[in-house]
Amino acid sequence: MIVVIVGGDAAGMSAASQIRRQKPEYRVIVLEKSENVSYGACGMPYNLADNSRDTDDLKVISPENFINKRGIDLRLNHEVVSVTTESVTVKTPDNQYEQPYDKLLIASGARASRPDIENIEGENTWFLHTLGDAEKIKEDLRQNTISGVAIIGGGYTGIEMAESLTALGKSVTLVKRSKKLFPFLPEMMNQRIEDELKRNGVKLEFGKTPVRINRTGKRISIVFEDKTETDADRILVVSGVEPAAEAFISSGIKPGIANSIQTDEFLETSFKNVYAAGDCSDAFCAVTGEKIYEPLALKANRYGKVAAANMMGNPTKAPPVSGASAVRIFSLELAVTGIVKRSSSMTDKMEIVSNMVTVNSRAHAFPGGGKMDVHLLCEKDSGLLLGGAICGPFRESALRIDALTSVIMMKGSIWDLYNMDYIYTPPLGPVWSPLLVAAGDMIKKLK
Questions:
Q1: Structural domain total, the chain
Q2: Are residues 70 and 84 in the same domain?
Q3: Are strands 291-292 and 332-338 parallel, antiparallel or unpaired?
Q4: To the nearest 5 percent, what fractions of the chain are helix, strand and coil?
Q5: Which of 66, 106, 214, 233 has the most crowded Cβ, counting Cβ within 10 A?
Q6: Do 292 and 280 share a domain, yes or no?
Q7: Catalytic residue at 42?
Q8: Which of 417, 414, 408 has its CA nearest to residue 320?
């Protein structure tokens, strides 16, 4: 049995390792277009905040380990440019060849989105998506005097890089087209996060559309639609990701939402014996059951293992995803789950009730802590819990989203949440957990 895997990061290497453990007689070939495999991309902003750390710290397992200890035929700098039902076409720096397979897993991941901004590619512009990108930024920060950085993109990576660059003593401007950092959050919660950024010296340029990059000598500037400009020494572009799926879709594999690869509940694509997992493919939403595109780390790792099971002949359904995610904003944390960030054809038909409460993160008589905002969404008639967000002090807030996610994944109601039995000890929280207070408030709104 020849198993070919396209992509050597989370989903791909999870699948390859599992197959080699359980089916050592299988030949497993991994085709990775870059020089790096199995690294912690989510840790890149924090690595860049410390000039003494090397980017090699982000590598989890070396290529040599996969080859010599796990027996995986790992081929670096091998890019798959097309696929048929029997083979893939592989391009290397020296040649091009056809690689046949019995089972194929596409785990090509995502690529950084390039916003439609004139002259965006060029000197003194950074992109951050791959380990190679991080290495270039690290070297630039070490070798050159950089005072100010303008960041295009106000998502999680943009916020993390704003914090990291501020820690390095850089002047940071955060640029975002929308007028609010997180338009899907309640106004008070959103304002709290924006105030935290400004309190730490981050300049906010929101509600402005970049149209061009100007370069004059060593200086660089963003020109906006309203003719105003923002100057900097470097511009960092982190405006989201999109599936790296075009080679496979152009080969005839059926596309899914957001130009991802469409899969069934067993992660098989429209080509028989061809599977897809990770940031290149779609998933089922745990709340609505609809297809969504959710490029998150746990989904990639888990779906790699699910795909491996199915390729080995062990039928395994991929669990739906909640979209739970979190980010640190200096001394605050934000975590969201469920449909907070999105609407759909199903939710558009629902009458959705929302609320937000602000409570203490610890028992009132215990020092420290702070205020925690909890935002919930539920369906009015059934009380079905649909989503939520939590914002509060660092190391005291975000992990509570896991409890909320558990209720959502089990199709629980607001009453199910209210009846949960959560811990109490003064250093860690009040008698009535912030989640229970929020649930109680929501129940009152439903009456």
A1: 3
A2: yes
A3: unpaired
A4: 30, 30, 40
A5: 106
A6: yes
A7: yes
A8: 408
- Single-letter residue type at 421: D
Matching residue, tokens 């609010």: 180
Q: Pairing state of beta strands 210-216 and 110-112?
A: unpaired
Instruction: Give the number of other CB atoms < 10 A from CB of residue 187.
Output: 10
Residue 116 in any domain: the answer is no
Sorted by sequence, the CB contacts under 8 Å of residue 264 that are 6+ apart come out as: none
Residue 420, number of CB atoms within 10 A of its CB = 15
User: How far, in Å, are 104, 153, 281 from residue 131 at the CA level?
Assistant: 25, 19, 21
Q: How far apart are CA 102 and CA 273, in angstroms?
A: 7
Distances in Å between the Cα of 63 and the Cα atoms of 29, 52, 57, 105, 281 are 13, 24, 15, 19, 25
Tell me if 65 is assigned to some domain: yes
User: Is 117 within the bounds of a domain?
Assistant: no
Give how far the C-alpha of residue 29 lies from the chain's centroid of Cα atoms, to the nearest Å.
27
The pTM of this model reads 0.94
CA distance 272 to 56: 38
Active-site residue, selected from the candidate residues 42, 280, 378, 391? 42
Helices (H) and strands (E) in the chain, counts: 11, 25
Q: Using DSSP bridges, classify how beta strands 291-292 and 210-216 pair: parallel, antiparallel or unpaired.
A: unpaired
CATH code for the domain of 383: 3.50.50.60
**Range(s) of the domain holding residue 99:** 2-38+59-111+241-311
Reference 91, options 73, 79, 83, 82; nearest CA is 79
